Amino acid sequence: MSQPKPASEKSPYYDIAEKYGVKIDFRPFIKVESLSAKEFRLQKVSILDHTAVIFTSRHAIDHFFGLCTEMRIAIPETMKYFCVTEAVALYIQKYIQYRKRKIFFGNTGKIEDLVPSIVKHNSEKYFVPMSDVHTDEIKNLLDKNKITHTEAVMYRTVSNDFQEGEAFDYDMLLFFSPAGVSSLKKNFPNFDQKEIKIGTFGSTTAQAVRDAGLRLDLEAPTVQAPSMTAALEMFIKETNKGK
């Protein structure tokens, strides 16, 4: 599993491991790191020129406040925050006192669900912290609704390299981003898939596997399996038929 180990022991992955007698290792293939203050300044963006921030993930929150601290930028009490989910909004409490801020959030995790709240506050000047790997979805939506905004890269995704002698003996690899597939090829340039199964979550990740010349054995989400855990359980059941 090319993701960090679940924070809770109640993860459905553990239920699957116990139910079907399989072993699941959590080994991230990628990691997220912050840009340096010098790198950020090259974008010539002034955070304090803005009155609101749009957060799409906890990573965005961590690196936004981390870089602000590094650059000694004091965020004003009047700053507003717009988050894709309540969980992301609550995470802001790691850096500020939640009750003293004006914080808005969506319910579905999709940026479209947050747009009505943003449009209600269309006089704000929005700042959008982004990863070096991103789409123009947010920019296009804000442009469409004539919202004043600035996007800036504050963090990047890099390969989480395997150490010499580190075990790599798996029957199946599950990826959640194209960057994870790139990391596999970087760490193992002579990787020979053979009987190793590969599963992905998301269409772009699936395409990255195909583009890498690898065989895709499991793809999520689907109507029958809207989550990776559901897809994995279906795959295991199918594999075990007749055994």
TrEMBL record:
Recorded GO CC terms: cytosol
UniProt cross-references to Gene3D superfamilies, sorted A to Z: 3.40.50.10090
Pfam families found in the cross-reference section: HEM4
Biological processes, Gene Ontology terms: uroporphyrinogen III biosynthetic process
InterPro entries xrefs: 4pyrrol_syn_uPrphyn_synt_sf, 4pyrrol_synth_uPrphyn_synth, UROS/Hem4
Chain ranges of the Tetrapyrrole biosynthesis uroporphyrinogen III synthase domain: 17-229
GO molecular function, one term: uroporphyrinogen-III synthase activity
Protein name: Uroporphyrinogen-III synthase HemD
Originating species: Bacteroides graminisolvens DSM 19988 = JCM 15093
